[in-house]
Amino acid sequence: MGFEQVPSSLRELLADVFEISPDCIAPELSSKTLENWDSFRHLQAILAIEGEYSVRFDPQRIPELTSVSLLQAELEKMGVAL
After folding, report:
1. Cα 52 vs. chain centroid, distance in angstroms?
2. Integer Cα distance of 35 and 17 in angstroms
3. Is the per-residue pLDDT at 1 higher than 80?
4. If pLDDT is split at 50, 70 and 90, which confidence band does 81 have?
5. Measured in whole angstroms, how far is the alpha carbon of residue 12 from the centre of its chain?
């Protein structure tokens, strides 16, 4: 899997939050594989995604959304056109 599988809007947003190149944003990127993905930046990412896509994540799900693929799947499940 590569970065091209992540929609550019989500890729740019996450790259900005995690302060990395958009080319590094791939579905398998997670809090376990990226040192910058700490609890603070996780919250920043969640808030940025909610603002960008006008959605609200279930607070119970937020701690589980720890990879790009999980975030993307959750957005798709919410009906967001990526």
Report:
1. 11
2. 13
3. no
4. confident
5. 10
Q: Element (H or E) spanning 51, and its range? A: helix 39-53
Instruction: State the CATH class of domain 3-77.
Output: mainly alpha
Q: Distance between alpha carbon 43 and the CA centroid of its chain, in Å? A: 10
Angle of CA points 2, 68, 80, to nearest 5°: 105
Domain ranges of the chain: 3-77
Interatomic CA distance for residues 23 and 53, integer angstroms? 21
- Whose structure tokens read 């790259």? 15
Any residues with CB less than 8 A from the CB of 56 and at least 6 apart, and which?
A: 50
What average pLDDT does range 49-64 have in this prediction? 97
Hunting for tokens 């590094």 — which residue is that?
A: 24
Structure tokens at 5: 């599988």
